[in-house]
TrEMBL record:
<keyword id="KW-0812">Transmembrane</keyword>
<keyword id="KW-0472">Membrane</keyword>
<protein>
    <submittedName>
        <fullName>Integral membrane regulator</fullName>
    </submittedName>
</protein>
<feature type="transmembrane region" description="Helical">
    <location>
        <begin position="80"/>
        <end position="102"/>
    </location>
</feature>
<dbReference type="InterPro" id="IPR049713">
    <property type="entry name" value="Pr6Pr-like"/>
</dbReference>
<feature type="transmembrane region" description="Helical">
    <location>
        <begin position="157"/>
        <end position="175"/>
    </location>
</feature>
<keyword id="KW-1133">Transmembrane helix</keyword>
<feature type="transmembrane region" description="Helical">
    <location>
        <begin position="24"/>
        <end position="44"/>
    </location>
</feature>
<feature type="transmembrane region" description="Helical">
    <location>
        <begin position="50"/>
        <end position="68"/>
    </location>
</feature>
<feature type="transmembrane region" description="Helical">
    <location>
        <begin position="127"/>
        <end position="145"/>
    </location>
</feature>
<feature type="transmembrane region" description="Helical">
    <location>
        <begin position="195"/>
        <end position="219"/>
    </location>
</feature>
């Protein structure tokens, strides 16, 4: 017979940690995919220029969050903050959507499909723009407890894209006009489009990102808990990657 919990004693001190090996393995594999893509780009590209891309930065953040979450799931520790995990998911979703809808779309006006990628570059491109965004979406839908996101997070998450926009413009202004990849993305190329047009494009994208963040929070509040039945025996709580 299990003795009742004494007042002031946390449940975690009585109930043993509940490990989630399947979630841990999936997150570890997705972390490995992001790291592999980044390493390939660093090896075959310019290691000083590769980190300036939002794609690399968002995948690096996702790798850290997933690796950390995999460890916590494997050892039965509490989940990370949903503010952190939700932000990592939003940023990698932005990476995937911008790539497939704008950069890989010849009709967008900002296409970067000039040269076909082959070999390691093609593999890295798919890992960083397709595999990790889709994997993060599956992790969020199938392995994450719903109800942990708050609407105020949406505006807080946008601070990073806004800071990246400012960084890209300042960096481009400081580099020579002949510098390679002076602006990391065509829609940020002030030399080609001017500051006014670039600012309008950035505003439109910013509003789209904010709408996506709000949609993410709204969906989190109504989506069902699709985790395995045996993973629902722990006390109810709002959480991130649980």
């Amino acid at each position: 017979m299990i003795a009742p919990t004494s007042p002031g004693v946390p449940a975690a001190a009585v109930v043993p940690p509940r490990r989630r090996p399947y979630a841990a393995v999936f997150r570890a594999l997705l972390c490995a995919a992001a790291v592999t893509g980044i390493v390939i780009d660093m090896v075959v590209g310019d290691p000083l220029r590769v980190p300036i891309y939002f794609t690399i930065q968002s995948n690096a953040l996702l790798a850290v969050v997933l690796g950390w979450s995999a460890h916590r799931a494997w050892t039965g520790r509490p989940p990370l903050s949903p503010r952190l995990t939700g932000g990592a998911f939003l940023f990698i979703a932005i990476t995937g959507l911008v790539y497939h809808l704008i950069l890989a779309n010849d009709s967008s006006g900002f296409s970067m499909t000039g040269d076909a990628l082959t070999g390691p570059r093609a593999l890295s491109n798919q890992l960083l723009h397709t595999v990790t965004p889709l994997g993060a979406a599956l992790d969020w839908l199938l392995l994450t407890a719903p109800g942990g996101l708050l609407f105020r997070y949406a505006a807080q998450w946008l601070l990073y894209p806004a800071a990246y926009f400012a960084f890209a413009l300042i960096r481009g202004a400081l580099l020579s006009s002949t510098a390679e990849a002076r602006y990391p993305y065509p829609f940020l190329d002030v030399a080609a489009h001017g500051y006014a047009s670039t600012a309008v494009t950035a505003l439109v994208l910013g509003l789209a990102f904010y709408a996506l963040a709000l949609a993410l929070v709204a969906l989190d509040r109504v989506r069902p808990d699709l985790r395995r039945r045996e993973n629902r025996i722990s006390p109810e709580r709002a959480g991130g990657l649980k």
